[in-house]
Amino acid sequence: MKVGLFDSGLGGLTVVKSILKELKGIDLVYVADTKNAPYGDKNKDEILDFSIAIVDFLIKEYAIDALVVACNTATSAAIEDIRKHYEHLVIVGLEPGIKPAVAWSVSKKVGILATPATLGGEKYKKLAAQLSQECDVIIYEQACPGLVEQIEAGQGDAPKTIDMLEGWLAPMRELDVDTIVLGCTHYPLIAQSIQKVMGREVNLVETSKPVAKRLLHLLEQKGHQNIGSNTLEILATGEINKDMITRILGEEYQIEKLDLARA
Ligand code: DGL
Fold it and tell me: SS3 for 122?
């Protein structure tokens, strides 16, 4: 099975990593749309346009069987339209794990870190309001502008990043938040910095593993055997931090330059 994935940059590689662990016998092609990154401060129409251009390319050039929108922001802005456009495709998206976070929180205080575009999404807003009411949980939302850029630059534990996190997280720490949702696929890459600022006892919730399991389930329904080895190809529409890729995936990959306007 061929599976296409995309994100604005390195973040979706956290999803790739989980998929490579859970699935066998699949060919992955990953598009990092670094030319248009970050997505989180763009409007819905822009993110939708970026997403459709990538999915068109993956279908035309790679004839993918499945698509993983490895980005919370693009899932929020574009997944409904992508599903309408490509009815035959298996499609999985990434959404902030508010449900497990609400279930795990003992203090009944949950923090959500995500991009402004994700926090402004209709589906997210409805679910957050519904869960906080039904489960009597207080949800503290925090948009993190500039954080994706720090992570892309390999500055996840730099003093400037820690200062940014301190500004966003200190109020949550004081309010006794015990569970934090990493609502952007980039944020698991700085889980250690977040733990350091919050204190060790905080739960961090990310959804790449359940997404990998869901993908496996959907592919098995299509006859996937889950045996054999995996391959991974990485394409980037702009500059990308190759050292970070090696750090995330644990080995070096050749990165192809992708010009979507000419593809
Ligand atoms: N990794 C992304 C997400 O999950 C996109 C972040 C961005 O480009 O702003 O939301």
Answer: helix
d(CA 187, ligand 1 centre) in Å: 9
Question: What percent of the chain stands above pLDDT 90?
Answer: 98
Residue boundaries of the structural domains of the chain: 2-94+208-257, 98-205
Closest CA to 226 of 215, 242, 210: 215
Fold match between 2-94+208-257 and 98-205? yes
User: Catalytic: which of 19, 54, 71, 245?
Assistant: 71
Question: Is the per-residue pLDDT at 169 higher than 90?
Answer: yes
Considering the domain delimited by 98-205, tell me its CATH architecture. Answer: 3-Layer(aba) Sandwich (3.40)
Tell me the CA–centroid distance for residue 223 and ligand 1, in Å. 32
The fold for domain 2-94+208-257 equals: Rossmann fold (3.40.50)
Q: Supply the pTM of this predicted model.
A: 0.97
The pLDDT of residue 201 is 86
Rounded CA-CA distance 181/199 in Å is: 15
Active-site residue, from 184, 189, 204, 236: 184
Residue 71 falls in the annotated catalytic set: yes
Best of 5, 6, 7, 43 to mutate for ligand 1, by most ligand atoms within 8 A of CB? Answer: 7
- Closest by Cα among 48, 47, 84, 93 to 66: 93
Is the pLDDT at 95 greater than 80? The verdict is: yes
